[in-house]
Design goal:
By secondary structure, the protein is α+β, with helices and mostly antiparallel strands. 39% of the residues lie in helices and 16% in strands. It contains 17 helices and 12 strands. A hairpin with a 4-residue loop joins strand 8 (320-321) and strand 9. It is globular and about 75 Å long. The relative contact order is 0.12.
Length: 393
Amino acid sequence: MSTWRVDSYGYPNPFTSSHAKRSWDFFESFSTNRSYAAVKSLWESHPTQPVDAHTVESRKSAFEQFGLLYVLTSTDRVVLTPGGKQLLAAASAGDQREFAWIGLNLLLRYPLRGKTGRRPRDLDHQGSDLLPYWFFHAAMLELDGLSQHEMFRVIGQIFKRADAPGAIDRVRAGRSNPSAIAQLQDPTGGRSGAVYNALNQVLVAGGLNHMVLTSSMEPSTYLPGTNENFWRYRGGFREIVELALGAAPSLPSGCASGVRLTARMPAARGFPDEEAYFEYAGAAVTPLAEALAASLVAPAPSVQYGGESVRLLTAGTHFTRVDADHIVGPVQSLCVLSLERRVLVSDDLAVTHMVEHKELLGGDRVQVRLRRARPVLDLAYVQSLFEDGGASV
């Protein structure tokens, strides 16, 4: 049975637990030493808490997963990413909301298949198109929290984006019929170990080491007479996660409701080499204040056309054309688009288009692949829809 495997060291965070602060000390040591050998030497010779080189390597791998820094294969140079620098600045300013916003957006980019140029964990990971932290938070939002058994027996065993909505449906149904979840195998065997640690680290890292999420031991829905952890959002942080996923309640025209989050989830991108991957994973995050302001911009409006709800995409407002088949736009404008839904595109009104594929670019922009569909026979009417600005439905 395959389950998610991620790096097993906790998220660096100066605002929460002693373990999180310990991770933050490691991160700061990388940020002040541009030589990886120097970082290892620093910790191996630490006067009170010496650490071996293997542990430092594991810490470095975790920071790479989080999009904070990287060391290219066969090199010694520590590269602090733009996103990593932003996280340091937010910590220095004592700004916990900005810290959470930056950390979450960097995490959302991580592909389950792992870092380009590094050996995949197994064939399931290698063939995955899933962004695990994106899916995890989508599940947390759609289900209003997750229990440990739901995470371990269902969510943490999904490798394909196409299977994500069904997994959430399975959890939702299981809450009404607990035996449906209880009969699923627990991949940990009920014991601590590598599998337990990896899945638990998704919960820990996904919550930025207990900053965004909180857990409590509660009676299990699935195993009567036992208790299990249930994870929820801490007050004030849920809205930041919603905004990062393009589903902030402040967005007008139903961007936070209707079509489910998993239907909007981008695919994991491919990269030609590890340097290109790390440049993407650690790219600068739009500051929270700017993202909140942008979220007030209306998403692509919808109209009734040809017996169905169709989105109107206006060049320069909702998207920029990349090539004949691809457009790019902000999450806040394109968050309502779902796969295989029909759209009208202002710079190609001869036909309608179908949304064929989406993938996340950085943390706040989405690239969409469109497929030309049926001809538009009433061009004057369609042009008038754009002139009117669309009627939200």
